[in-house]
Design a protein that fits this description.
Elements lengths: L2 H7 L5 H7 L3 H19 L5 E3 L2 E3 L16 E4 L3 E4 H4 L21 E2 L5 E6 L2 E8 L1 E2 L1 H5 L2 E4 L6 E4 L7 E6 L2 E10 L4 E2 H8 L8 E8 L6 H10 L2 E3 L2 H12 L2 E2 L5 H4 L6 H10 E8 L4 E2 L3 E3 L4 E3 L11 H10 L4
Antiparallel strand pairs: 1-2, 3-4, 5-8, 6-7, 7-12, 9-10, 10-11, 11-12, 13-16, 14-15, 14-17, 17-18, 17-19, 19-20
Amino acid sequence: MKKEELFDGFGALEDELLKRSEGGGSAMKKGKNYNKILKIGSAAACILVVLGVGVIDWNNNKETEFNTNSKDNIAIEGNEIVSTEQSKIQKEPESYVDVSMLLASNEGVTEQSLAFSCIEIGEYSAIYYKVESVDSSILKESIGSEVEGTKNWYKVSGHEDMQYLISYDRNEYSLWEFSSFQSESYAYGDVLKFIYHINSAEDIKEIIVTPADMDNTDKGKVIQKEIGTTTIIEEEEIEILYDVLSGLTCYGSNQWDRIGLGDDTPSAMLEQVRKGRYLTMVTTQGMKIDSLKYTGILGMFYEYSGIAYNALTPEEKSAIEKILNIK
């Protein structure tokens, strides 16, 4: 699922507005304003998120109380009771579940309000946001092992990565996707390791590279067509990309000033398309990570939410742009 589509639901923004947010100017300011909301929410240790007609509870991994009166019952969040039969789900041999089949693009989905939750993973507090998914009963059958140190948070069955997690709360299962770590700066190598279970270049099967699409005018589309889509499968090129990415420092969200794609004039937007690439990493486990974008204007990686990374060295920039075919 494209981040463009996800942030569509994130604040009810239109696709076009998100794409323009990359270009700077007044459109980018709107993106900045929204990212300030996310930053404030993170700094406040994951407070309530209000959207539309309802107030959404943070899923804060509340302390559970155990009912010691019955061997056949265990306690769950909110002091609700679930049978031991259900508790054994994650103990059974796990079969691989394709996460794409759990997302809202498939039939039988349920609408879910936008909410965020913080999960302690290693030394970090990871921010996850709820995504629209299939019915709770299907998610129940898709849970894998419980996330260490948490209660009622599960990996997807057959997965070691934690890009998506399944949560159980108030008799309902819901699907959540990783956003970022709650920190002013952190090593992107830790994201690759702890969240995506990528420990070396060998864990990456291929990298799909598409042109940036912030300009969808006729001229912009011509440039996009000229650039086209390429798939990187050469081990040496994947290793170079992995080495650069794992050495990046991430500065968190709301960092559009660091990214500095330029203004939103027609000529500047076309240059952003020429110098921009979107990356989708496909892991050996079959997961797709499509959050990273690259701009050759400043020689740096970034994400739509204003998550910025440090600028590359001249040597790194040259090597990366040769692989991404940026001239």
